[in-house]
Amino acid sequence: MIMRGGRSLVSSPPAFSNDAKKLLLCTSNTVSVFSTATGLQITSLEGHTALVTSVVVVPPSSPAAKVLCYCWTASLDGTIRYWDFSVPELVKTIDIRVPIFNMVIPSFLNIPAEDNGRHQDLFAYVFTEDTKETQEKTKALRRQIRKCNLSKSRLVGRLILGETKKPEVLTVSPSGKFFGIRNKCKLHIWKVPDQGSEHAAVRKITLHHTKKITVIAFHPTQRIIAAGDVTGRILTWRGFGNVAFAGSNGVENQNLINIQEDKPGVRDNDDADSCSTWHWHSAEVNVLSFSSDGAYLYSGGKEGVLVVWQLDTGKKKFLPRIGSPLLYFIDSPDPTLSAISCADNQIHLLKMPSMGILKTISGIKAPCCYPEMYKGLGSGIAFDQTAGMVALRTENYCIQFYSLFDDCGIFEVQVCERNHQPGDDVMVIVTAVALSVDGSLMSTSEVKLAEEGIGGLVCLKFWQAGSQNKEFSLSTIVYEPHRDAGISAVTFHPSGNMVVSSSFGGDFKIWKCNNDIIQNDQMHQNFSWTCHAVGSYKKRPMTAAAFSADGSVLAVAAETLITLWNPYKNVLLAVLGETLTPIVNLSFLGKSDNLVAASCGSNPQLSVWSMSKLSLSWSYKLRIEAVASAVDSSSFAALALLPESFNETTFKGRDGVILLYNATDPVPTAIWSVRKAKGGALGFLQVNPSSFEDGKTPEVLLAYMNGDHEYVVFDPCCKDAHEVSMSQKGGLSVLDLKGEGGQYGYASIYGELAEFDKKRRETPWVPSFPSERPWETIFSGSSHNLPPLTKLCSAFLESLLEKRTASVE
């Protein structure tokens, strides 16, 4: 294996280093360390064998100790590890042999005085799973809160602080004196005992609410705790635990419970002075955090809006349009810097108190959730073979371009000009995305769903990349390219100047690029696309399409048949058939004369066809999710889904396999079992020899992306699974750091200014083709560019008349 990526950056709350120059993120079974100045990854902590659930940075014992970089991590592999993340180096490992869902270390925050020069033991509180099954104990309560002695590397006896059905999040107060969890409609709070004995009694209180609590937060200095619920309300209890946590024995002032007359908002005689309620959020509250001085409370939820509440007055201000539900809000030791984690796998670094976004750490976007009728249209993933990038659709109507080698987001293209509000019903679906071979052109298809049966629309769009930043701009829009039928596939010609789109309505269209070169100080190309040809076969739905390597043959699947066409003359060459179920994927195998087809349904099939013999070479009964072919060879890879019976026995939970074939041999040359194959994708990547430090350059790389958009890039021809180190020559890490050391002033902050060109057009013309008509060229373009109506009428009427040649007698 060469490299892995695409992991979630927001599975657990992040943590800042003591100097606020680094941000530690839990990324699967590793901890990734990012620079807050550049937003780029610096290093990673590798050693855990399962998901890392918590990371806790050791605070400095003195101002001079801020440069120290130590942290504790906990994982589902049952280990707690101590790291020096400046090196990085593993210092200590504690194996408690039970999965750890969450961990807090209050002792860091409540530092006691040394007892006769002797250091106190360091304790952590962990949320674990009881893996032992007994007859007396049912499986209902198997998640436990345990105390762990980090100094002695063991759990504290049989001490169990609490049990729940599901693992909950442990939240510790900034003072280190309390920690708590939410459990349905209840809030459990424990007071951290003194460090004298590991068996000291831990006192607990419970606060009640009528709705399910989703998140809690402690005030930094006062006995105030805030909680958010599923309805969007925020409750604030003041003076909690004044009775239970008052004396050393916990029963001091016990009679005050019955004497107190006025406890506004407090339910069930809870141990709190008062409880107040705020309500702004329309959905459940996911984020609650007090400011470092305790004067403000930050809240966020599904709306993608960060709300700042003034604690004394209840006044609020907002950071709107973040674009995704909020998950975590973390303060840093630097009061001018905070971080907010979002559900779209992005982390924004905020400048406080203005709440401006300084940097964004972009992970790969999660798969989209679409209505059931559109789930079978493909994964919406396209690979840029030359640049090592992948283009994938996102929920906010964008196409994200993600670097597979650098494991970071590059840019996003707004496909549909529509405001995305988290939680809204899906009204626009990007059904297909395709890239040209060199990655300079892109085509997308989208469906605007009808509202109450009115307003449905299918669009085909063509995009061109800029010469400098590679970001795409819209060049052509085609409304209803196949009447009211949906588009099943979009594929580029190898030369890039031709695109074929197939439809379920029974036809396919070939679109040709008109490349107009505008002469000015800098050569500028303006692309526009027009319909070159239309084809169909017995009115069958066209379900897939592919060009040959030289572009001379176009293969279009007409349900269970494969039709071969001359794309330049639009002539039917041959018909191959017939499969048992409709074909959903076609791909020519490099420069060979073979074609691979994948069909789905009750009788799925993977078949290889010979173009020279126009016959079937070999086939398998496999349910294929994705197919990728190498450009310069006859090899191809297929992602096959396994039957459920295989997952439980032979493959141990893996639900798919990657099969590497040579076109002429039905026996696969290599097989890899994978997880989360449903919704996955495959793609071959071209290799840049300068990217490899050791000089061993593989011929080609294969990228596999699973249904959760996690990916692995490896050499399919290498039998040894050793890792190959990739250098960052010319990569993003070097490019982004150049601005720090080599530029000054304005350029170091905003970059170099673009040269002003007086002759450059401010708004490029985007031609739009409403439908296929003989007079389409007359009405093409924007309305302000059209000739007067008096001139259009004569041309329009002439296009409807047939011209006759006069006969001379």
UniProtKB/TrEMBL annotation:
The record places domain WD repeat-containing protein 75 second beta-propeller at 396-654
Any Pfam family matching the protein = Beta-prop_WDR75_1st
Q: Where in the cell is it found?
A: Nucleus, Nucleolus
- SUPFAM superfamilies xref list: Calcium-dependent phosphotriesterase, WD40 repeat-like, YVTN repeat-like/Quinoprotein amine dehydrogenase
Q: Which UniProt keywords apply?
A: Nucleus, Repeat, Ribosome biogenesis, rRNA processing, WD repeat
First-listed, main subcellular location of the protein, grouped into a coarse class: nucleus
WD repeat residues: 278-319
Task: Supply the name of the protein.
Answer: WD repeat-containing protein 75 second beta-propeller domain-containing protein
- Organism this protein belongs to: Hibiscus trionum
